[in-house]
Amino acid sequence: MPGRHLARASHHHRASFLPVSLTLLAATLCVALPPATAAQAVGAAETVRQFDVPAGPLASALNRYATQAQVALSFSSQQTQDRTSPGVHGAYTTAEGFRRLLQGTGLMAVRSGDGMYTLQADPSPQAAAQPAVLPTIAVTAATASGPFGAEQGYIARDSLGATKTLSSLRETPQSVSVVTRQQMEDQGAQTISQTLRYTAGVVPEARPGRYDYPNIRGFGTPGGADANFIGLMDGLRLPKGVYYIAPSIDPYMLERVEILRGPASVLYGSVNPGGAVNLVSRRPTTDTTRELELQYGSFDRKQLAADFGGALNESGTLSYRLTGVARDTGTQLDYAKEKRFSISPAISWKPDADTRFTLLANLQHDPAAGAFTYLPARGTVHPSPWGRLPTRFYEDDPGFSRSDRKQASVGYEFEHRVDDTWTLRQNLRYMHAKYDYRSVFQMGWDGDLPLLNRMTIDSRESLDGIAIDNQAQAAFQAGAFRHTVLTGLDYRHNRADARLGYGAVPPLNVLDPVYHQAIDLPVYDNISKQTMRQLGLYAQDQIRVGRWAALIGVRHDWTKAGTDSGALSSGVISHTPQRDEATSVRAGLVYLFDNGIAPYANYATSFEPVLGTDFHGQPFKPTKGRQYEAGVKYQPNGLKSFVTASVFDITQTNVKTADPDPAHPFASIQTGEVRSRGLELEGKLSLSSNLALMASYTLLDTKNTRSTTAQDKWPYGVPRQLASGWVDYTFGEGALAGMGFGVGVRYVGASYGNSDNTLKVPGYVVLDAAFRYDLMRLDPRLAGAQIAINVANLLDKEFVASCWDDNSCFYGPRRNVVASLRYRW
Description:
The chain is mainly β. Helix content is 5%, strand content 51%.
């Protein structure tokens, strides 16, 4: 990555007592960096580390040193051009090591923040006369733990998920958003979907509740086969089951959430053309981390969370992280509860500066996974003769329903730097999950009576998934061109089993609901078994020449799938094999102006296998996607901010649409096409050490350009406009010092609620708020403790989030208040 190096920064967490549900906004961590001074070159007392950096080209020596020192370093390629370093060997503080490393170069390292450095000309007479040094290059990075994304504040400078190499967001010709750990805490995100509430181009809660499946750039329905489930974690694909089983990750376990807009098949194979979400786990750290958090809130929410980490030996070659959460809460629905117990242990071994092996695991049990309800449009979007159904209305039966989910995963990340050119990596994860689900669901009104027709469903599912990604990265100079070439071979194998049955149940009178009825258990008559194997070979080249940065990638995938399905009662089990191949491409270009402006353009394609067959038994072909995108990114020097504006045009082909032959009433054909165009604006800005701002706006034009039933209609659940804004202010002086406030507003425009666009769901506006206070201001003995109160939907707005047909509408979340107490030491 030209112009800058980001490596692990030594960071000691300041103690603070905060909530995990709706927590504070630490704008103090969003602070704009002050100008560096020479006096900062030698910091306060630092840890003595062992360094082993050989003599050689200065850029390579600096990169190697920053990795060993665990600091973030920013410098330009022009500063290091034609310069060499004498290297450094032995035990030194970071400052002393820099002095020895830069001896004779005419440069000095200037500390500009906690674990952040930049290069400047050395004004001392002792500075040697290597080529003249360019003016100061301001620090533009704040990465605190290398490629895995710990950040102070809201503004991420780099991403690993966007390119699979640690790359500057400004130099990446693609629209990418990052939700940092700080933003998740300050806005009180309780689910992955809630972390995406302030992200451009994303409708995160079209169907609030048990699952996370955002709609990105107009693609992804509020459920069903076309739902855009969260598909990536730590750069590897997550498996998915046949019907109701999909992994659920708690946001407390994460360091950041990366949103990659547009096709990402070149890196990850089969993905939604609108974009992908990559979850990044908390990882081991050699800096001691201790955190405990208590929460209590609306619907009798009780939560205990803990995060511990640090070195396991004196040399720091072994480190660990242990993160866990236990939660018991009601929901806005009568009788529906959520319970979760999750723990994520991790151990990292780093025997030298060139080798790292990290073991990541998770064990989670959700004895009560919340409600999965939906209601008719008449009584929610529109009034019924007997009024509107309350948002707490429960269509299920508490004596019958069950939702018990278990999941476990284990994997590793291995990286070895062979030399200054080559780096090898292998990442692997295995996941197993089981889900027992039973409920009563409504099927619409019984004529004009206040009775909801209902059925029962009982299912037992399991899944097993293994994903492995092998990478070889080469960084080298070829004349004026600097290359970072990545080649990889990845493989995943998923297996999913499901047994389910349906049964009859009496209607429910909504004016006088009777629960705990005697309901017979359905018979497990339907069985399904699915296997999916995917092998992908890919190559990517990131090229930097002068102010130009280009990205070119290509991938070829081979997929093999098989589905066994049928009814046990009939004894007929059918087998449907599928084999597909697809080639995906990606190309982008960005120009980097000195003032921080970076216009870019890209073209990318995607594919997604579609399981099943048409009426004649022919397997479906994969859907194909292609995107044209152009935009501009702005990251001004001297001001901690990042702004992105983009326009895009995405077309998806081979979309399933209803078979027009009246003799095939339940069959589909693949002549459908969906086109989505739009404008996205997103900005994050720290105006001072006390004031931080975020804002986003999205304008969408999405329609079915080819369909047998919905020609030129909008897909349901896709609004035309989205907007959001968040303002945070912290008092630094006076009687209110230590107190902070955050206020947010979210707007989701109107959407259609069925495929023929005869049902329209109104848009809505909700307000969020946050309050926090550092208890050390009351008593120094309370250092490290912080209280917070977070409120989502402050004015308790009642609204319908979306519908997918006239009998399937979803109420949005009502007001939710969470008080938190966090202690860090």
